[in-house]
Amino acid sequence: MKNRVGRRALGVLAGAWAAIFFVGGSLRVLADCASFGLPFTDLGSTSFCAAIAEAYYTGITHGTSATTFSPTASVDREQAAIFATRTLDAALTRGSRRAALGQWWTTRTTQWNAGFGVTAVGTGPARMTSDGEDVWVTNVGDDTISRVHARDGRLLGTWTGATLPFGILAALGRIFVTGVGGEIFMIDPTLPPGDVTAVVKDIPDQLSSIAFDGSKLLVLGGTTIWSIDPTDWSFVPKAKSDIPSGLVFDGTSLWYTEASGEHLFKLDASFQNILAEVPVTGLGVVGADPLFDGANIWALGPLDDTITVVRASDGVIVKKMSAAGGIPLKRPYLAAFDGRRVAVSNDGFVSIFNSTDLSFQGTLPSPGIGPVCSDGIDFWLGIGPNSIGRF
């Protein structure tokens, strides 16, 4: 039997809708809802006309018929879920940078073959990140970092001197890069292109993934997660693992994947104690970083063509996707989140998912396997030995 929410809960829901209509500390009340142009004839002199109007005009509710709203009717769990998800989708759609710039298209097309959206960078793009304005690329093949203007794809500059650059992070108004040889490099984006600054030189590990918790840099190196203090560049070892393969910070906790035991681990604030241990499969040895989409952790399994989606709040597996189950996946390597969608880089194509309901949206062709990131509007992908492309 369905759980039913009574009149009181409906009033709470209506009250929540109405909360945004406070002007100068008082609720805007109109006795006649027809003043809002609503088609409903059964609202009477309710004080929630404005809230009902917004819910109706944004598509959150369509009423119970063309002319009735049924304001005192009960709401069951299915209807409550529909109201909540429509509200979430409306917020994501209307509150995004894409909406503010009038860029409503979300069709899965590229123009790489025509040369549109393609920028030549250094050799061997390994990782990408965005600072909200530009896209930064580590080029492990020629020891450079490229800066590309996201809106028009212009190459703004190239930094040199980063030996074997790999992981990259935008934080503290700087760009931080891990060097496979155990170094951390830093770029000040306000300065002209030139040589990078080596801020840490002697971590005794091969460094790959990098994250930031608001205070410390967290770097994956060999079998250790290192915590680096940017005030004095001191570094101390934290969690250890046989073969850690990637890490991500969710705003509260640090997560890392372990290829040897095929687990996703959640660490506490000390980065030493395990809060959750989630079994996942197909993890690569190095580089298949997990992704956080604001609610869930996406653990990629390039060795068995799977994605395991784990709820960050409690470590529960909410969905397992696989090529064997019909989802187009082939050695999924890296993923990016644009605020609404998740793009997963595969061998020869990109898979697109809706982050809110985890539904598969489609694929785009891509040459080989490349790094992927989002600038908040578009996705960017490494599309060749010395190029990145926007889609």
Walk me through the topology.
Elements: E1 4-5, H1 7-18, E2 22-23, E3 26-27, H2 49-57, E4 75-76, H3 77-94, H4 97-100, E5 118-120, E6 125-130, E7 134-139, E8 144-149, E9 155-160, E10 165-171, E11 174-179, E12 183-187, E13 197-200, E14 207-212, E15 217-221, E16 224-229, E17 234-240, E18 244-249, E19 254-258, E20 263-267, E21 274-279, E22 291-292, E23 296-301, E24 306-311, E25 317-322, E26 334-337, E27 341-345, E28 349-354, E29 360-365, E30 372-374, E31 379-382, E32 387-390
Antiparallel strand pairs: 1-4, 2-3, 5-32, 6-7, 7-8, 8-9, 10-11, 11-12, 12-13, 14-15, 15-16, 16-17, 18-19, 19-20, 20-21, 22-23, 23-24, 24-25, 26-27, 27-28, 28-29, 30-31, 31-32
Helix pairs in contact: 1-2
In short:
The chain has four helices and 32 strands.
Describe this structure in words.
- By secondary structure, the protein is mainly beta.
- It has helices at 7-18, 49-57, 77-94, 97-100, and strands spanning 4-5, 22-23, 26-27, 75-76, 118-120, 125-130, 134-139, 144-149, 155-160, 165-171, 174-179, 183-187, 197-200, 207-212, 217-221, 224-229, 234-240, 244-249, 254-258, 263-267, 274-279, 291-292, 296-301, 306-311, 317-322, 334-337, 341-345, 349-354, 360-365, 372-374, 379-382, 387-390.
- It has 2 domains: 4-94, no CATH class; 112-390, YVTN repeat-like/Quinoprotein amine dehydrogenase (Methylamine Dehydrogenase, Chain H).
- It contains 4 helices and 32 strands.
- The strands form 9 sheets. The chain has a 4-stranded antiparallel sheet, with no helix packed on it. Strands 6-7-8-9 form a 4-stranded antiparallel sheet, with no helix packed on it.
- Helix 1 packs across helix 2 (49-57).
